[in-house]
Design goal:
Largest sheet: none
Order of helices and strands: HHHHH
Number of strands: 0
Distance between the termini: 16 Å
Helix content: over 70%
Radius of gyration: 16 Å
Number of helices: 5
């Protein structure tokens, strides 16, 4: 992977890992539970753990790709890159839904801010990462 792709991948990994870890502590632990119950997710108690571990896992994966990804085979690296980025997009689509849901108050959202600027920013960063990755791969084949 080129340096630009590594940098954006590392930033995405950091942006997923830190909030994921924060969700294991108060008040974020309660906030995530309130998000899930507010939007009507079934099994909110179990789902909060899935959310936390997913964010931490994807964060670690993206950081690994950023720092050690070139040691993997090209095929595996590309699959993990696509998996990690697409998973972030799915998570952020759910986050946008959560931000916009009328039963979720701004007080339990990151930075107590209702408009989904952060999740949309993550999605745009993933789009940019795919663009860099694809343009770098096309240059290799020419």
């Amino acid at each position: 992977m080129k340096k630009s792709v590594k940098t954006v991948t590392g930033i995405l990994g950091f942006f997923m890992l830190i909030p994921g870890l924060a969700k294991f502590t108060e008040p974020f632990k309660t906030y995530i539970y309130n998000h899930l119950t507010g939007i009507g997710f079934p099994f909110a108690d179990q789902m909060q753990h899935i959310v936390k571990f997913s964010e931490v896992g994807i964060g670690i994966l993206m950081l690994y790709l950023a720092f050690k990804g070139n040691k993997l085979s090209t095929s595996l690296r590309n699959k993990l890159f696509n998996f990690g980025n697409l998973t972030i997009v799915i998570m952020m689509i759910v986050a946008v839904y959560t931000h916009l849901h009328p039963n979720v108050p701004a007080e339990v959202l990151p930075m107590e801010f209702k408009p989904p600027i952060m999740p949309i920013g993550y999605i745009l960063l993933v789009v940019y990462n795919f663009y860099l990755f694809r343009s770098n791969n096309e240059k290799q084949w020419k």
